[in-house]
Specification:
Layout (H helix, E strand, L loop, with lengths): L1 E6 L5 H9 L12 E6 L3 H10 L3 E3 L2 E6 L17 H5 L3 E8 L14 H30 L7 H19 L12 H6 L9 E8 L16 E5 L1 H7 L7 H7 L6 H12 L2 E6 L4 E8 L4 H8 L1 H5 L1 E8 H7 L2 H6 L4 E3 L9 E7 L2
Parallel strand pairs: 1-4, 1-5, 3-9, 5-6, 6-7
Antiparallel strand pairs: 2-4, 8-9, 10-11, 10-12
Length: about 350
């Protein structure tokens, strides 16, 4: 899972990256992309680890990427076209827009209009997708003039891309156009930006902490965050954070809010494997079936799948142990096609 942070100069996106990653503010050069693999806070997994006391404890993670700012720091664009390879690999995009006064901002960038900034960022995304789409259409047009074994496949791809181009020219995001299933698989390698899940962080000043963010259509989540304060809090020892959070009336860290929203936006849930060797969280897409969950652990488990032994976390915790859960009839035997539920504790029976 990878989330790329996008924003205009002076939006505070690097401060938000610090607040999410916990890395020191000066850990990277402004001209380079920064990557942080952030652990997903999971109280259920911690309870299981406390029970089993395993030799290894493995949390799920999300990769967050902070794109570098412009060299001069005064461009009125986010410069998405310069970072298309990174953006295309993202599963979701986190747009950061400024809602605070900053005397360092050049006059021509001095406006404070978060909704207008979101609109401008979306326009850059539309243009980036249109460029990718147009380039591929040109190549297909040339290729279809020559005999080829893939003529029918290319003709079908061209028809889909021409429909995508028409939508983009009408300022319609591709997630509203591309059909799930075959079309989605056909276009997956393009990494279209307007096909991705979008989160928006309204980066406010201290005086607006705790305020409700504005409603924004067609996004997976909107946050009101003071990145400057949050980046300071995350640098503190864990035991000192609650007091500072209380002073600022912050009920939950920006990191935890963004991580949870990212998982929801990507439609991800978690199942667990437990034992003395390891307690581990496994993130999978909602709707994942048991045999695919087995393959997530190891390909041999999917290849030799016999059945899945499953108990829900709440039932397991109420029972207190696997033996008691089995005695109470809570441990179920499920087939390959069982749809994994969030919080399932799963043991795969297999033979290869």
């Amino acid at each position: 899972m990878r989330v790329v942070i996008v924003g205009f100069p002076y939006s505070g996106k690097s401060a938000l990256f610090t607040a999410i990653s916990g890395l020191p503010p000066d850990h990277h050069k402004a001209s380079e992309e920064s990557l942080a693999s952030v652990k997903v806070p999971e109280p259920r997994l911690q309870w299981l680890a406390d029970l089993y006391k395993p030799r290894k404890y493995t949390e799920a993670t999300i990769d967050f990427v902070d794109l570098p700012g412009h060299a001069e720091g005064d461009s009125e664009h986010a410069g998405l076209e310069k970072h298309l390879p990174t953006l295309r690999q993202a599963d979701a995009l986190l747009l950061v827009v400024r809602a605070f006064q900053n005397p360092a901002v050049p006059p021509h960038l001095g406006r404070i209009d978060p909704l207008a900034d979101v609109k401008s960022l979306r326009e850059e995304m539309l243009l980036a997708d249109l460029m990718i789409c147009a380039n591929r259409i040109d190549k297909l047009d040339k290729s279809l003039k020559k005999p080829s074994k893939t003529h029918d496949q290319e003709k079908h791809e061209l028809a889909v891309l021409e429909r995508c181009r028409a939508a983009l020219e009408s300022e319609k995001p591709l997630r509203d156009v591309i059909q799930p299933g075959e079309e989605e698989r056909l276009l997956r390698s393009f990494g279209f930006l307007t096909q991705k899940s979008i989160l928006v962080a309204i980066n406010s000043g201290e005086d607006a902490i705790g305020g409700d963010p504005p409603a924004i259509e067609s996004v997976a989540g909107v946050f009101n965050i003071c990145a400057a304060v949050e980046s300071d809090i995350i640098q503190l020892p864990a035991e000192d954070r609650p007091a500072f959070m209380a002073d600022y009336h912050i009920s939950a860290l920006a990191r935890d809010r963004v991580i949870r929203a990212s998982l929801n936006a990507l439609g991800m849930i978690a199942f667990y494997t437990v034992g003395e060797d390891e307690v581990r969280a496994w993130p999978v897409p909602r709707g994942c079936i048991a045999v695919d969950a087995a393959g997530k652990i190891h390909t041999d488990l999917a290849r030799g799948f016999i059945r899945a032994e499953v108990v829900g976390y709440d039932e397991f915790r109420a029972a207190g142990s696997m033996r008691e859960a089995k005695a109470q009839g809570k441990l179920r035997q499920e087939p390959k096609g069982y749809v994994v539920q969030d919080g399932d504790i799963i043991n795969i029976k297999f033979s290869v």
